[in-house]
Design brief:
Elements: H1 3-15, H2 22-33, H3 40-47, H4 56-68, E1 73-75, E2 83-85, E3 92-96, E4 102-105, H5 112-116, E5 128-131, H6 134-142
Helix pairs in contact: 1-2, 3-4
Length: 143
């Protein structure tokens, strides 16, 4: 991990009230580098060869801790799994029902200001869209 990435990771963890550990740093770096909305098993499988002391339980616990401290978002766009997103600013997601990819989409919610400027504290906003992505549609057209 490059020094600037380590420094960013250390700062993010500390800013969210989390103890800095090698496991948290490597998971955070993975989420920063790969914006593919992975699930915990994908993260574990990607990291285990370079981090042999990393356990699947540590990955799950770290992701849950990061979520509780509002460092990562949990996506439940697929009913069968939890996926993780480091990007915290407001955005929505599109899931391709053909290939399973989850993509960030930029659509502003026209009613968010009513809630945000109201009497309530908004902790999460989720907007999920499901359909067929442009790549899969292109493949279908070529058949």
């Amino acid at each position: 991990m490059a020094d600037d990435a380590i420094e960013r990771g250390v700062k993010l963890l500390r800013d969210h009230g989390l103890k800095v550990t090698p496991q948290r740093l490597v998971i955070l770096r993975y989420l920063e580098k790969y914006r593919n909305h992975p699930n915990a098993d994908e993260i574990y499988n990607a990291l285990k060869s370079r981090n042999p002391s990393l356990s699947k339980t540590t990955v799950y616990n770290t992701l849950e801790t990061m979520h509780k401290q509002r460092l990562v978002d949990v996506l439940t766009i697929s009913e069968s799994e939890r996926r993780y997103d480091l990007r915290r600013e407001s955005h929505h997601h599109f899931m391709c029902q053909e290939c399973g990819r989850i993509l960030d989409i930029e659509i502003a919610c026209p009613n968010c200001h009513r809630i945000i400027n109201g009497e309530h504290r908004v902790d999460e906003v989720h907007g999920y869209f499901k359909g067929i992505c442009s790549e899969c549609l292109t493949k279908e057209d070529k058949l």
